[in-house]
């Protein structure tokens, strides 16, 4: 019997990741809450068999991958009525790619154990482009034997796949990653503003600075988009705000002070209030250009 793979959540990230999983030569089936989205159609055309319910999608699956939005969404697809927990076969391995923070990942794992279901947190970095190209960074928390078993499948979706230790540790690394992304965006927006004020071609600044000590993924991949006022996502502002909320929640019991996180949170919220919730994170520049801050 060949292993069967199910993918729950075929959005910006999930759809291309499920398509890349087809390279594993296992059968890949999928489910999306809203079935008639273009990205779901794209996955279907590539060969992912789409089922109308979670139960149908997961009942025979040995590995169940999830990529939905927030904590409550992951809990809904796992523990909600007709969800994974009630329908997966015993000992199935559930791998969650969503960014949901350490506490939620550990809670979910603890609730699944008595139901004989295995769980790993495996948040990703690399954006929609990394998901399409199969070059994501995947940071995994969970049992090492589960990680080893799943690694060949993760390798169809990612280039750098790192075992980070116990369940929740993938999420912990991912929260650090999101702090870097959010604060880098402040630096990028401010460099773009300075370039404009000094009458520089922004693309010249991007080209030169990308190759030196100031180079960053944000500068190389999102600088040109800011120059062209291209705010299509990529990674949506509503998702980075979720992640900054998760960072702050996870540190609520500490006295750590993160002024860069607070500033980037405030700037993203200004753009959210302008209706930019579903624009890419590079739309932070709108806070500089269209508000008095
Ligand atoms: P997205 O395009 O908005 O997709 C979200 C997916 O979750 C959709 O399939 C959506 O279904 C589903 N969903 C949301 N709430 C649900 C619920 N309550 N029940 C069932 N399904 C639900 O988002 P994305 O960009 O793929 O992001 C997914 C996750 O990856 C997030 O945790 C995000 O932080 C993380 N991530 C994203 C990026 C990126 O660059 N985009 C990079 C790294 C990590 P519908 O189609 O029905 O709405």
UniProtKB/TrEMBL annotation:
Pfam families in the record: NAD_binding_11, NAD_binding_2
Domain of life: Bacteria
GO biological process: organic acid catabolic process
Keywords for this protein: NAD, Oxidoreductase
Enzyme Commission code(s) on record: 1.1.1.31
Stretches assigned to the 6-phosphogluconate dehydrogenase NADP-binding domain: 4-165
Family in the record: Belongs to the HIBADH-related family.
Organism whose genome encodes this protein: Crinalium epipsammum PCC 9333
UniProt name for this protein: 3-hydroxyisobutyrate dehydrogenase
SUPFAM superfamilies in alphabetical order: 6-phosphogluconate dehydrogenase C-terminal domain-like, NAD(P)-binding Rossmann-fold domains
Positions annotated as active site in the UniProt record: 174
3-hydroxyisobutyrate dehydrogenase-like NAD-binding domain segment(s): 168-288
Segments crossing the lipid bilayer: none
Molecular function GO terms recorded: 3-hydroxyisobutyrate dehydrogenase activity; NAD binding; NADP binding
């Amino acid at each position: 019997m060949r292993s069967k793979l199910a993918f729950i959540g075929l959005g910006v990230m999930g759809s291309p990741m499920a398509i890349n999983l087809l390279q594993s030569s296992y059968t890949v089936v999928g489910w999306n809450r809203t079935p008639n989205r273009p990205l779901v159609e794209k996955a279907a055309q590539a060969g992912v068999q789409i089922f109308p319910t979670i139960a149908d999608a997961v009942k025979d699956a040995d590995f169940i991958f999830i990529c939905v939005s927030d904590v409550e969404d992951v809990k809904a697809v796992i523990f909600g009525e007709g969800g994974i927990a009630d329908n997966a076969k015993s000992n199935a391995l559930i791998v969650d790619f969503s960014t949901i923070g350490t506490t939620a990942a550990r809670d979910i794992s603890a609730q699944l154990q008595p139901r004989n279901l295995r769980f790993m947190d495996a948040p990703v970095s690399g954006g929609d482009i990394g998901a399409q190209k199969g070059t994501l960074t995947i940071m995994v928390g969970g049992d090492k034997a589960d990680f080893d078993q799943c690694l060949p499948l993760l390798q169809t979706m990612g280039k750098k796949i790192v075992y980070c230790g116990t369940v929740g540790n993938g999420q912990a690394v991912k929260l650090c990653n999101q702090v870097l992304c959010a604060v880098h965006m402040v630096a990028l927006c401010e460099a773009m503003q300075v370039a404009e004020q000094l009458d520089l071609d922004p693309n010249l600044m991007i080209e030169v600075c990308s190759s030196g000590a100031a180079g960053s993924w944000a500068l190389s991949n999102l600088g040109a988009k800011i120059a062209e006022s291209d705010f299509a996502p990529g990674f949506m502002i509503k998702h980075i705000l979720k992640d900054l909320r998760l960072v702050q929640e996870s540190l609520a019991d500490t006295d750590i002070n993160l002024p860069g996180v607070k500033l980037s949170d405030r700037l993203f919220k200004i753009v959210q209030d302008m209706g930019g919730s579903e624009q890419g994170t590079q739309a932070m520049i709108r806070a500089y250009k269209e508000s008095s801050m």
